[in-house]
Amino acid sequence: MSEPLPVWGIVLIFIAAVGGFAAFWCLITALIGRISGWAKLASVYQYGGLLELRRVWRYQSAGFGRFANYGNCLTVGVDEAGLHLATVILFRCGHRALLIPWSDLTVRRRKMLFVSRIELRFAAVPSVVMTISDRLAQRIAETAGDQWPAAE
Hints:
This protein is an alpha+beta fold. The chain contains 3 helices and 7 strands. The protein has one domain (38-147): PH-domain like (Roll), CATH 2.30.29. It has helices at residues 7-36, 38-45, 134-144, and strands at 55-64, 68-78, 82-87, 98-101, 105-112, 115-122, 125-133. The protein is elongated, with a radius of gyration of 20 Å. Helix content is 32%, strand content 37%. Strands 4-3-2-1-7-6-5 form a 7-stranded antiparallel β-sheet.
């Protein structure tokens, strides 16, 4: 008969499992950041300063390109400098906080099926398209005032 596993063995297995899961999670979220275009945006618009925002909306949703949907995991903020985007802490691997200047944003209204959506494009990274709800776009526009670009 084999001897039972000592307590320190169980602790080591638990630590290895948690560490392995955390590493796997970071790998997957970083991969999503690359596929979605967030990494390209971060290479130009990365922001690490303190935020003094006029308004913040937490747990918002947006689509990036055709393959990535950030459902209820974005923090969207508005200030004089531009549009701030960040993910909730669970998705921070591969998703640095962004500050997109108002002058770099292009806004376009699109009909998708029966729903009106707003497309945001970025001057420095034109290959990345962010799609948000009409409701969120209205909130941002009301807060940003004249700084919000007119829809094409």
